Amino acid sequence: MQSPQATPELRASAVGGTDRAPLGFDVIIAGCGPSGAMLAAELRLHDVRVLVLEKETEPVSFVRIVGLHIRSLELMAMRGLLDRLLERGRRRPAGGFFAAIDKPAPRGLDSAHAYLLGIPQPVIERLLEEHATRLGAQVRRGCAVAGFEQDDEGVTVELADGERLRSRYLVGCDGARSTVRKRLGVGFPGEPSRNDTLMGEMHVGAPQEEIAAKVSEISRTNRRFRLQPFGEGVYSVLVPAAGVADRTEPPTLEDFRQQLRAIAGTDFGVHSPRWLSRFGDATRLAERYRVGRVLLAGDAAHIHPPTGGQGLNLGVQDAVNLGWKLAAHIRGRAPETLLDTYHSERHPVAADVLDNTRAQTELHSTDPGPQAVRRLLTELMDIDEVNRRLIEKITAIDIRYDFGDGPDLLGRRMRDIDVKDGRLYTLLHHGRGLLLDRTEHLTTGAWSDRVDHVADPTAALDAPCVLLRPDGHIAWIGDNQQDLNTHLSRWFGHPSP
Ligand SMILES: Cc1cc2nc3c(=O)[nH]c(=O)nc-3n(C[C@H](O)[C@H](O)[C@H](O)COP(=O)(O)OP(=O)(O)OC[C@H]3O[C@@H](n4cnc5c(N)ncnc54)[C@H](O)[C@@H]3O)c2cc1C
Fold it and tell me: What pTM, to 2 d.p., does this model score?
């Protein structure tokens, strides 16, 4: 059955039982959360034909305020989205995020966007979906991916209603319970959830002063207890859950009432919920991010507790790492090994995030041992280098991909700087490579159709010339044309004739 949103192009691609029908799309993405929408947009920058299948008929409506950290803000600036996000969010200082230990950010963080942006997740999702569709991605809502089969030419994707669609690649951005990951048979090792938390928005009957007094008393020893006024008598409520019998069942208002009574001695007269939700602290990482023509990104590839606010950031950064590589592969330009660098670069980054959330979770425990470690770390964070290391980790500006031997800058992301015609990140809006050149004798030559060249002898660079990938990471540093050509070929494929 076709969705009402199906376009003529899409109808032509439905195969109705014949697996080797024409490849209607280059890439099908399962899931239009932040990772899926960002990936769709990145692929469209390179004219890849993209279809996003989203099981929900409407975008999410419940408001969860999330934090966009420095590296994600930089990526948004690199794609021309930052101003729109800044209008809709609240800037906060970048410090105080590691295990919520209250320390200011160290001075002189190496970024033009050294702050945190607090913003509702639905706003980010809407903006990224609009960005993707404006660039030409098709999004079909109410379409759940139920299964798929891959062959040497492409992937046949089966929807829950039996419809079949063909594409060259499939990317599972379908969240923590990813159908794509499960059907792919990729292991998801790690730890199951030990502590579940109820979260929701609801009206409250008790007076504000009574609530404030209880919250201040309980939250001293219980870091998962919060009732925060949201306006018009509505409160955002966070309370530890009792054991969860069935994770597929959503929580009820009665679950909230029982837990509030158990912990606070009163349920504060909660009623008329706007939405109710639950999250756990399971920590898991997919063993592989790619099996043939099927890839995983975002929560489909990694899950961890929300402490430090890194999950959405990690998924969006996966998408920006993968998009240009998959596009180059589809165009037949990428060396075979390029697509595999998605796993080799991003898997260790996620493993590191999982580890830092494990550490933070321990530091949130109210047991005497972890509390003693917390006090010690709080003291150590007065040392600027310790504080800096932790902030750089949480905000993902510490990442250095392994591109082989070379100066420390190699493999790191380039910060936004002034260049002769404006800002560096503005030059990356179209997702192309960039040669930022102070030498005045280098050229992008036979790669100029995919790599821009900015000759600027006055650019504030600690190097004669840098080659930037579309994700802003430094792929080469030097001043020798032959060496540059080797690296242009490594990252951007064969030279044009
Ligand atoms: C309380 C809490 C606070 C958080 N705070 C932060 C924070 O401050 N900062 C941060 O970075 N992260 C935070 N996170 C994590 C963040 O919300 C997730 O990491 C993020 O939503 C992951 O994005 P995603 O696109 O990978 O997956 P999802 O957001 O889960 O999106 C997956 C999409 O796929 C769809 N889908 C599922 N199955 C199918 C299917 N079979 N077919 C088609 N579509 C399908 C779903 O409907 C959904 O739209 C928080 C999480 C929680 C629970």
Answer: 0.93
